Amino acid sequence: MAICSTINLPRHAVGTQHSLNVWRFGEQGASPKVYIQASMHADELPASLAAAKLLPKLIAADEAGRISGEIILVPVANPVGLNNVILRTHNGRYHLPTGENYNRGFHDISDEVLDAIDGKMANGPDADTALVKREVAKALAAAQPANEAQSLRLELMRLACDADIVLDLHTDSDAQMHLYLDEDHWPQAADLAGLLDARVVMFARASGGGPFEETIAWPYVRAREIYGADAVELPLTVVIELRGEFDASHELSDFDADAMYRFLCHRGAIRQAAGALPEFTGVAAPFAATDTLTAKAAGIIVYTADIGQTVKAGDVLAEIIDPLSDGNMVVDRITAAADGLFFARANQRLAWPGETIGKVQGSETLAHRKGKLLYD
């Protein structure tokens, strides 16, 4: 039977307390374990809408006895960020007291886990994976948060740390559907990409900053690097970018919820036919092949290319206009670094030097894309 529980976070202010609502389906400890959360960036509301549409489907499946593993759903992963409304503007990306990006700085416990499993491995993939899962859970249970945002991150990690599948639902600013996942899961994860009609899949590992899905997988990644890729199972951790922040509609959220439900059926978490799987027809490439378009001057952004447009290297995708110029108003032309798909751009139209205003997905790694690939 579906169960909804509440996890209270530490009080940040007198008389104020935030809490997480956690839905659980199936049998605790059963396999496969699936964890789904939505809107870690609290202003990315189409993610929570899709989760809300998925919820009754999971309740019905549980009541019918179709859940074969364990499924956890957190429709609102960041209740703290829902409060970030200032002068009628919602910014759910950053923790206001600290300035931290909510989806950065997740707790890396990989060193503790590697120390704990030293000398205890080589008992077979199932036993060794179970050992890593136990040590991950123990390390997270012992971790102590310093503030409300860190407490939120730890609670989410404790829910997801031993899952076989982790779906982290986000949205971009203005974008087509795209995914981030570990390359070791490709092309097997084309089932999810095809069902969601994703246009871009980016292979991401150690992108910088400690985002949720990469940090969840990191102890397993490091164990595989030491003991071999066959030693432990790598959890499928995926960021699903459900298009753009303004794409909150019944039509889209119903489609997304149905796609995720069918994916869970296909992967054996729900005993129900998934139906025919659509073929993935988008672009799949390393995250380092993603060209992030950056403004070099301040002004008004005027896009000269549309989302979903295939572009060539050197194509002008946007112009920055200085409305105070008494001559040529165009102070910057932003071009594509390589051939690819123009799949994401900014909603706001004010640019300043260094601001990322769009993304083009190519097929080959770009020379300038090194080091920390995620921006805050």
Structural write-up:
By secondary structure, this protein is α+β, with helices and mostly antiparallel strands. The chain folds into two domains: 3-281, Zn peptidases (Aminopeptidase, 3-Layer(aba) Sandwich); 287-361, RNA polymerase II/Efflux pump adaptor protein, barrel-sandwich hybrid domain (OB fold (Dihydrolipoamide Acetyltransferase, E2P), Beta Barrel), CATH 2.40.50.100. The chain has seven helices and 20 strands. The chain has helices at residues 45-63, 110-117, 125-142, 148-160, 190-195, 212-227, 250-266; strands at 3-8, 19-26, 33-38, 70-74, 85-86, 89-90, 165-172, 174-175, 178-181, 200-203, 236-244, 283-286, 290-294, 299-303, 309-311, 316-321, 330-335, 340-345, 350-351, 356-361. The strands form four sheets. Strands 1-2-4-3-7-11-9-10-12 form a nine-stranded mixed β-sheet, sandwiched between helices. Strands 8, 13, 15, 18 and 20 form a five-stranded antiparallel β-sheet that branches. A four-stranded antiparallel β-sheet has the order 17-16-14-19, with no helix packed on it. It is globular, with a radius of gyration of 21 Å.
Write the layout of secondary structure elements.
Layout: E1 3-8, E2 19-26, E3 33-38, H1 45-63, E4 70-74, E5 85-86, E6 89-90, H2 110-117, H3 125-142, H4 148-160, E7 165-172, E8 174-175, E9 178-181, H5 190-195, E10 200-203, H6 212-227, E11 236-244, H7 250-266, E12 283-286, E13 290-294, E14 299-303, E15 309-311, E16 316-321, E17 330-335, E18 340-345, E19 350-351, E20 356-361
Parallel strand pairs: 3-4, 3-7, 7-11, 9-10, 10-12
Antiparallel strand pairs: 1-2, 2-4, 5-6, 8-18, 9-11, 13-20, 14-16, 14-19, 15-18, 16-17, 18-20
Helix pairs in contact: 1-7, 2-3, 2-6
